[in-house]
Task: inverse folding
């Protein structure tokens, strides 16, 4: 078998997930190089993952490492520059969301991808690879709910991690850009359409610090799509019960709802509180399978020459929509997208 | 409209439920008399239910009150004697379970009913009137699960009321007679068959007082039916989450499960415990509709001359089976029923 | 006991529900008169409910019948005129929603109610009396979810009754006025606040006839409340699975969701489709208990002199908001309420 | 890192699962050899898994292959002989259930394991590694349900695969040995006790062919444990909705139920049937994670010298109990275990 040699950039929380998957759980590839700004993370890669080829500098990895592809899991601000450099260096690229921190960056990323059409580029919208979302999409494509015309998406981070949310709020781009981009991508994917108009609201009900930073702790947005369909997003940072990602797709003949109870597993407790289901804590738990499946897809696409079903344009569109949503929230006005 | 005049005997917890239904919620009848050993309960009947004809003595009510029918909701030990007297006095009879506290009493009750075949007699197996059980029976009769061949029944009282359970354990007849008789009736009803063999176990895991009285706090029984079908009962007194009545009927083409989550209502909480459903507290809450529907059925049967679908024989059979179950628990042996 | 004598106006589908409750299931009152434009409905009242005092004309009933109160369950266009006449005639009034078909009617109704402050007036927002909503409100008042800041409300009629929906669409006032008024009332009730801004969308995805009438088959609206809270409504007419009324109240410390699965009862089927819960068919099934409880509350309020917790102003506000929502849907613009 | 070299014996349905896990998803090991009676399966191992060292004969693999450990996933009748040979050849052994097809074989396997105490031996009771069961065990160990005193276990194969069930019924050892052994192990594990008495029933309700072979299509058993606890097993072969594995552990302060709805994933359909959850099809889908986790545990145990928590004695005990259960079913008598 042909083994794809991959270098990973970024070994933070999500970087470690991807690195472990690449090192141990994905047929067809070998994690041969890693890059991080932190020596301790490189030490981890060496000792835990057996990676020998280690770099403190991304560009040095591109030049020196014997790799066919890179997985970019660095901070958002680096994505655009690194994917451009990697493509220019002749590497296939898997890049975590977001594509860029501005729409301009996204458009520039599009150019890079277009200029290296022989290389595989895939963006990390992992929800499209979660078994439940894959199942929902397939059911819909089979006609199980008729024509989908409304997506209701909820994405709320756990209250438990509010300190982290507050700490990074200033640099996150704001609630809708940081949190809603996956939901935006899902709406587009399920509806097969693009939003034309958005009206968004937000507020800070438990933690006024968000408002003080000009951000919102919780927000809602209502979208009108170019085929007449509708989308609703509810996002926030204070779910007491855990990490709540729920999506409903409503069609003319039925609907599909994914994860109204964000269950930790299949066990249910009957105790003095009543009947209780414990919930997933955070994204690594909820989307473990999705992270694995998306990276497998990337590797398979590179090896087979197939195009991934998440394109660079999905990244740009989601970003544009998240910015428009933020604008509506900030101005209190309807915002029209073009 | 023809109004059935009814007298009620017994105004305890369940008696009050029936009395309120008869007084206010059942077309076709009037609650005109009431009997209780306690003056305070008679006062309640007068002031809250508007009943004018009040008795401290059951036989006196039979003789003096202008009533067509009686509802017997007294202590179990009185049932057989009272229903016999009432039928002899020419009254239609609704009698709460159990039919009698011994099999001999039940057989004697059968005789009384047979001797007054022109009178309506109905036993209070209210679960057969609960909307969910009615629905299950209808679905089964329509063939939704093919041929039913196994009933799994769970009936556990709330831990919250353990003091009452302990207080009455001595006079209750024991766990299987006190608690399992409804489940036994349901098994017979759903399977359309009679048990031939029973093996029962029991123990006292949280409250050794039950064992000290020769009783069990929790018990299980496995039944073989004369058509080859099977039945499982799990009963007990210490459900931490509330009043747990759950029944599953398994058939050759599917199964139906009733109330695996004994939900208080349709609301679900998402809080720091996870996703939580509060549960019903006790039988009045769980079976409010069933108590109403069974009494309506009694009244309708009397007025129309129709036979109730719960007969005196259902009372005898359930009692026999409960005694056989108790015998198996006490002897540790298989017990065969004839 | 003091018996309230009530006359009912309107004996259609919902009228019959109220009439049966008044006739048989509500202590403290007697249904002594009934009024309908259809002789067959009056015959029904006589034969099934035992009502002797029957009228083809509402005003005649007001003048001639020996009644203390009227229950108005006629077509929406009659409500305002009839409640005004009834109050003027010295009757207590229970009136089904809507209060009026225009905001002007509502304001006129307010005047009538204010002019007869000694009379009890109650509007039929029955959901506030549904056990699950009552429970949710109480939990929230007890602080179970902290401060509520978002209500997500879904109300979709069953696809099964689409012909009726189409037939009455022309005279219904439109989707948001016909369908969303209960959800609007619930948002106000749970949030304790009034909407300031609304943006609404709608479309006709399965049945273009709605669009042809200038109406929508399905719609969504996003509200900003005067305390910063948010509200989302999704309403429609084509739920394949049944009658779907779902409400979620999100607070700073948790949330409560009511009826995400609009279950018919507590039975669950395991069959070749998977695990299946059948759903309620329509409002009479879903809200049977609520209709009973609200009418009991009305009678109790009259008898005790207590004020109902649903006021005439709730009717006006809901109507104003429903009209503003419709305006937003029709103009495609944000609409500000004052 | 130290890499464990493993050879797998058996490449059928479950063998392929283990082989894929060993080849691609388990850090710390390399699948270097494979053995099968079928050349096509060896071809699969070469082309899909990259295994070079291939054998048609188990003993030849033991002698010639450069392996530290073997995974035995062959037909049940081979397990005992092969594990004995492998241990004698100085290999660590992972062996699928059952340990042996008779109690004598199990006792002989115990001897082999005892004679090679320096080698790691682990039996494939994968349910103990399923995340939901692991969670339940941990909750119980933390005291979440007080003292566990009853396990209710259900294990029913999908109706969809009835032809295979019928085909292999003759050689399966019978329903309780083939199907209930995992449930028996779970009862022992959760209760920390051994059964003393069993009463079992069975029947063939949809497929009389089972009865004709002296077997049962569906069966129930009730166990008394040596600490007074109780166990109930319901097993069968005709679940219309899918592969149904459900377990409830009841304790003095609460209970835990695992997978009452054997959901395929987190998606729920709302369609004309009602609210529908599709179910898992079979064990590879339900226990994918468990198969991976148990093999990871085996590898980790070998590498670290730690003892697995599933011992050879667990295999013997489960087999003894399954045989006693079968005896009770066949004789209609209570059977006491020693």
Result:
């Amino acid at each position: 078998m042909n083994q794809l040699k991959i270098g990973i950039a970024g070994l933070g929380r999500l970087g470690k997930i991807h690195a472990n998957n690449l090192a141990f759980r994905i047929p067809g590839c070998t994690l041969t190089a890693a890059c991080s700004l932190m020596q301790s993370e490189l030490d981890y890669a060496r000792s835990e993952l057996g990676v020998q080829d280690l770099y403190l500098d991304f560009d040095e990895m591109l030049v020196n490492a014997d790799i066919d592809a890179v997985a970019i899991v660095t901070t958002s601000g680096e994505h655009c520059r690194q994917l451009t450099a990697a493509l220019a260096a002749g590497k296939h690229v898997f890049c975590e969301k977001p594509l860029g921190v501005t729409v301009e960056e996204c458009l520039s990323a599009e150019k890079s991808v277009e200029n290296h059409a022989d290389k595989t580029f895939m963006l990390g919208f992992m929800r499209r690879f979660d078994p439940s979302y894959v199942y929902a999409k397939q059911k819909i494509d089979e006609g199980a709910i008729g024509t989908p015309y409304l997506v209701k998406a909820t994405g709320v981070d756990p209250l438990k991690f509010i300190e982290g949310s507050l700490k990074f709020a200033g640099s996150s781009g704001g609630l809708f850009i940081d949190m809603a981009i996956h939901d935006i991508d899902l709406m587009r994917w399920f509806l097969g359409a693009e939003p034309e108009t958005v009206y968004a609201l937000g507020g800070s009900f438990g933690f006024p610090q968000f408002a003080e930073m000009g951000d919102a702790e919780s927000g809602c947005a209502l979208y009108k799509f170019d085929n007449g369909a509708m989308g609703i997003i509810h996002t926030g940072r204070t779910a007491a019960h855990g990490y709540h990602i729920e999506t409903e797709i409503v069609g003319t003949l039925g609907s599909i709802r994914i994860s109204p109870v964000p269950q930790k597993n299949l066990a249910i407790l009957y105790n003095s509180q009543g009947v209780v289901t414990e919930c997933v804590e955070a994204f690594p738990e909820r989307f473990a399978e999705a992270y694995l499946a998306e990276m497998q897809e990337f590797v398979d696409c590179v090896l087979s020459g197939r195009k991934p079903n998440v394109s660079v344009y999905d990244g740009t569109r989601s970003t544009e929509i998240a910015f428009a949503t933020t604008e509506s929230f900030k101005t209190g006005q309807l915002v029209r997208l073009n």
Remarks:
- Residues 4-119 of chain A form a domain with the Rossmann fold fold (CATH 3.40.50.720).
- The CA atoms of residues 128 and 268 of chain A lie 28 Å apart.
- Chain A has two domains: 4-119, 128-289+318-336.
